[in-house]
Amino acid sequence: MKSLNSAAQAVSTSRRRLLFGAAAASAGAMLVGCTSNESNDSKSEDTAAQVADDKPGKKVTIGYAGPQADHGWLNAVNEQAKGRAEKYEDVTLEMTEGSNDNAQQIGQIETLINKKVDVLVILPSDGKALTQVGLRAMRAGIPVVNLDRVFDNPQAYRCYVGGDNYGMGLNAGRYIGEQLKKKKNAKVVELAGVDNLELTQDRTRGFDDALKNYPNIEKVARQAAEFTVESGQSKMAQLLRAQPQFDALWNHDDDQGVGAERAIEQAGRDEFLMVGGAGSKHAMDAIKAGKGVLKATVLYPPTMAASAIDLARALAQGKGIGGLAEFEIPASLTLYSAVVTKDNVDEYMPTGFN
After folding, report:
1. Tens digits of per-residue pLDDT, 230-240?
2. What's domain 8-163+302-336's architecture?
3. CATH number of the domain located at residue range(s) 165-299 in this protein
4. Residue 242 CB neighbours (<10 A)
5. 104-160 per-position pLDDT tens digit
6. What is the pTM of this model?
7. Which of 83, 90, 151 is nearest to 118 (CA)?
8. What's the CA gap between 253 and 298, in Å, rounded?
């Protein structure tokens, strides 16, 4: 989630992406099922693609390289990939230890290339810095599924899978706007992530664009944190001191949101509603309990890693996706940023991460 290259780069290039409005909990479901246009009653020409399903097929080895799991979301991504691979009898997963050091991660990927894995799933520590090793894999005939942090060059991957940072902000703004649309002179504040990251800028841009549709709402303050509990607490405390009254808070990240909640409780404030980001189990538990200010969270689904494994398996087996007319898997899959509230939290609870 803490990418140096936003998924929006892929989103903005329409000719190499397809937008799928699927909820996070069902992100991998499209890969199940089988279709054929061959009639049982006649010998028509078989032009239908083979489609990936759960039945054992050709044995494949998938190499997986991600950054160090130093954040709840990143750990959940790794677990999603591992768990999905274990589901398939025909998949062997070669998983690296993970690193936030670009040179070390490049070395880990080169080791997987030398092992001649059938396909690679790469969540780069820095998409721009690791573009060359993606190109190296593709030139070696190993398809690459680029996860979350997009490479600089579309030739460095066969398929991109990621979340929608702009969509997170947009849906957070829409939810807050609908809750406050009848309130005159409503005020909102924003607790952003790391400000120099494009993903943070995209989330803010989406939020601001959504609020343009609600002229009664003004964003009166914004503070950038660092996606940590400690930064969330300290930056939220600053916002609370500077703003004696407001009606809603949009927090970009549920991990830093734990700290924000602490600051809110210490200040004894409860006059506003809070919307989080990413979809942690802690946030969902709080939403379900309905006792604090946290009323919703906007998903950035870690299930994208499970979908990446599905797509990697389909690529290695030369299969397509059930439910689509296309013979090939898509060039890009962007997950939808669903808003989780008390009304639907039970549905999304299985995707919540620690």
Report:
1. 999 999 999 99
2. 3-Layer(aba) Sandwich (3.40)
3. 3.40.50.2300
4. 12
5. 999 999 999 999 999 999 999 999 999 999 999 999 999 999 999 999 999 999 999
6. 0.81
7. 90
8. 9
